[in-house]
Structure formats: structure tokens, C-alpha cells
Design goal:
By secondary structure, the protein is an all-alpha fold. It has helices spanning 2-6, 27-60, 63-95. Helix 2 (27-60) packs antiparallel against helix 3 (63-95). The protein is elongated, with a radius of gyration of 21 Å.
Length: 96
């Protein structure tokens, strides 16, 4: 216990949300962040589901269904990438 009192590597370190700190101070900003998180997790869920459906179609040899699931996989993948890039775009727009 004495060693822990003498040396603490986290002394003086404060967590920060960086450019998003101002956004998260208002209720609207928190709602916007919550909506983004829910949307991102929904896209990730649908992406995993589409990957599973494409794998099942490929394993069972259903060519027509495989084309349809590949199209869905591309759409859901693009939506997930778009959701993941929104914070980066927001940061670029704020800092510019």
C-alpha cells in the first residue's frame, strides 16, 4: 500500500474528449452523440448479419441469393463506414 501512495503514473492526467468536449456540454450535443452511437451499433449489427447471410448463401451454393446478399453487404458496409467517418468529418469541419 505504501508503494501505491508514493508513485501514481496517472497523477495530473485528465480525460478529455478533445474537439468533442464543447459538443458534449449541451443536452442537444449529448442527444446527438447518443443518436450517433445507436446508429453506429445498428449499422454494425446489420453488417454482421449481412456477413452471416452471405456466408450461408455461399456455403449452400445459392447463386441468386448470394448476389442479393452481396449487394446488401456493400450497402450496409458503406453505411457503417459512413457512420464511422462522421466524427472525423465533424472534427475536420470544427478545426477548419
Amino acid at each position: 500500500m505504501r508503494l501505491a501512495d508514493e508513485y501514481n503514473p496517472f497523477t495530473g492526467i485528465n480525460p478529455s474528449f478533445g474537439p468533442f468536449a464543447g459538443l458534449l456540454e449541451s443536452k442537444f450535443g449529448m442527444f446527438l452523440a447518443l443518436a450517433w452511437v445507436i446508429g453506429f451499433f445498428a449499422c454494425a449489427y446489420f453488417l454482421i448479419e449481412a456477413i452471416g447471410r452471405a456466408a450461408k448463401s455461399r456455403r449452400n451454393g445459392m447463386v441468386g441469393d448470394l448476389d442479393e446478399t452481396r449487394g446488401e453487404l456493400v450497402r450496409v458496409g458503406a453505411a457503417t463506414i459512413g457512420m464511422a467517418s462522421l466524427p472525423v468529418l465533424y472534427t475536420i469541419l470544427i478545426s477548419a
